[in-house]
Design goal:
Elements lengths: L5 E5 L2 H12 L3 E4 L3 E4 L3 E5 H8 L11 E5 L3 H11 L5 E7 L5 E6 L5 E5 L3
Parallel strand pairs: 1-4, 5-8
Antiparallel strand pairs: 2-3, 3-4, 6-7, 7-8
């Protein structure tokens, strides 16, 4: 068995596609009416499907998982983030861990936690 994709819940898949394309260069592979498969095995599925499957409300910013990316030019990434999404909600701005890794954490437009760090 192998892990096939990582799926995150979003309110508007088209808006989220733009976000992930703008910042991480993801491209659309398949669009099934609110269920989008992107490059690098990321899937965006609209909240309406999850509410139907679960019969429960979706809790945003629940901090139970994160998407983790590595970027060698983290300062350049931050410039791009602030240019395209100046109102992004930060968990922490650029910081350096005791082991030397620089990281930034923020939420996507739907409250999914993202961490971008330099290589360890």
């Amino acid at each position: 068995m192998k892990l096939k994709n990582v799926l995150i819940v979003v309110k508007d898949a088209k808006r989220s596609l733009k976000f992930y394309h703008d910042l991480f260069d993801f491209e659309l592979i398949l669009d099934n009416d609110g269920n989008m498969i992107l490059t690098d095995r990321l899937v965006l599925q609209e909240e309406r499907y999850w509410k139907e499957f679960l019969g429960k409300d979706i809790i945003t910013e629940n901090n139970s998982c994160e998407l983790y990316f590595e970027e060698s030019n983290i300062e350049g990434f931050i410039e791009k983030l602030e240019k395209y999404y100046p109102d992004v909600k930060y968990v922490n701005r650029l910081m350096t861990h005791s082991w030397g890794q620089k990281v930034i954490r923020f939420y996507d437009p739907d409250g999914n936690l993202i961490e971008v760090g330099t290589s360890v």
